[in-house]
Write a structure and sequence with these properties.
globular, DUF2017 family protein, alpha+beta, AosR, 10% strand, 50% helix
Length: 187
Amino acid sequence: MMGIYLDDERGGLVLADLDEGSLPILEALPKFARGEGSELFLNPSVVRGNEAVTEEGKEMNEDWAEFVAPDLQTLFDEQLQRVEADMEAAEPSVGVPGAVDVVIAPSHLEAWFGALNQARLAMNEEFDCEAIEEPEAHDPNVVEKLTDEQHFAMHHFMFYRFLQEMVMQAMRVSGLMEIDDQSGDDE
């Protein structure tokens, strides 16, 4: 059974005991993140459908394409390269014969967070994964209405969401992400 924990001796967040059930889901992350056919870097001002785009909107789209999208693409590519390199460096599992462990160094956590987020965005765009809440994903009446493709995507989507939450917690513990004070105290 897969485990996720921080291990200072091993140098980061450990995705432990990835076996033939969980490893393929993790290995599919870059594929889903690249979102074949999905519009990954949409300018927020892009108008979809048959609505007219104003001259100002066209100019904003051109500026977005020229100045913002290339940097986003570079960042995205670097994140996926880091994730792929970490997966290629998988080590034999300490606890389960035949399984592997992936160790994510603290300096790689942001890349993993970004790649997981991008995969979830692309999957939602293609398969509408957020339309089904997690408890519903286990309801036989809901599941029977899903296509095989949607069911497959939903399984991956929930795994990536959980893993993204664990990466975020590791970022907080590592000091890479500040925790907002929600107490309401003004000082």
